[in-house]
Specification:
Layout lengths: L1 E4 L5 H12 L3 E6 L2 H4 L3 H4 L4 E4 L5 H13 L5 E4 L9 H15 L5 E5 L24 H18 L4 E5 L22 H8 L11 E3 L2 E2 L9 H15 L8
Parallel strand pairs: 1-2, 1-4, 2-3, 4-5, 5-6, 6-7
Antiparallel strand pairs: 7-8
Helix pairs in contact: 4-5, 5-6, 6-8
């Protein structure tokens, strides 16, 4: 399979990309800048494709989508890139995966990196700063992303859409004292993106270490899903195919 992994220079994205390559898949890795792309040389040296662009910048996201559309079709996307704090939270954690999902026509599997922090998110769309003029709330961003994943599953039965909580693991984002298992943190994403066993060929799930969990109640609310899709379409000028 041909799989894009966003945010694959380090951490969970890097681990997922390396695992996919070991399994013999065709991988496209992503770096925010040309300087950071240099760290991906061991992967591109094994044949991985590369896209470069800052997901905080909508123009860069549109360019990446166009570049990928012009190339060989993707089978799956692991939307791994994310930020914990600051003004890039909403642009990177929500707007970029929304745009890539809406604009890439090929993928039939989308895996979104959520977080247990989504339970602390507020199911309100009033006054959200989608453009990152001010710091964003991480829990809100992951609630919106997990809701988007569920909305895609509901509206596009031809697509497998799932959200994954990788746990609180000792990455650069998680910090050195994070208690969860780093070795397990990327495996559910890879499995959902490429697995062919019946357990992996599902949609609309919220997962932790290959086990489904109940997400925040708002995630499964069709009304909230539709309101979120309407706001994102209005904000970006891009409508998700299959939505109203």
């Amino acid at each position: 399979m041909r799989v894009l992994v966003t945010g694959s220079v380090e951490g969970l994205g890097r681990a997922a990309a390396e695992e996919l390559l070991r399994e013999g898949h065709d991988v496209v890795v992503h770096a925010r800048t040309e300087d950071r792309a240099g760290a991906l040389a061991p992967l591109t040296g094994q044949g991985a494709g590369l896209v470069v662009g800052d997901l905080e910048d909508r123009r860069a996201v549109l360019r990446i989508a166009a570049e990928l559309t012009a190339g060989e079709a993707l089978d799956a996307v692991i939307h791994n890139a994310g930020v914990w704090s600051g003004s890039a939270v909403m642009p990177v954690n929500v707007i970029a995966p929304y745009l890539l999902t809406a604009l890439l026509e090929g993928p039939r599997r989308h895996v979104y990196l959520s977080s247990g922090s989504h339970y602390s998110g507020r199911p309100s769309l009033d006054g959200v700063d989608w453009r990152g003029r001010s710091p964003g709330h991480y829990g809100d961003s992951k609630l919106f992303l997990t809701t988007f994943s569920a909305a895609l599953a509901r509206l596009r039965p031809d697509v497998l859409s799932n959200a994954v909580d990788p746990g609180w693991v000792p990455t650069r984002m998680g910090g050195p004292d994070a208690p969860d298992d780093l070795d397990l943190a990327h495996r559910t994403q890879v499995w959902l993106a490429t697995g062919e066993d019946p357990e992996a060929l599902v949609t609309g799930g919220y997962w932790f270490h290959r086990r489904r969990r109940q997400p925040h109640d708002a995630v499964l609310d069709p009304g909230f899903q539709d309101r979120l899709l309407g706001v994102l379409a209005g904000e970006t000028g891009v409508t998700l195919p299959g939505s109203r």
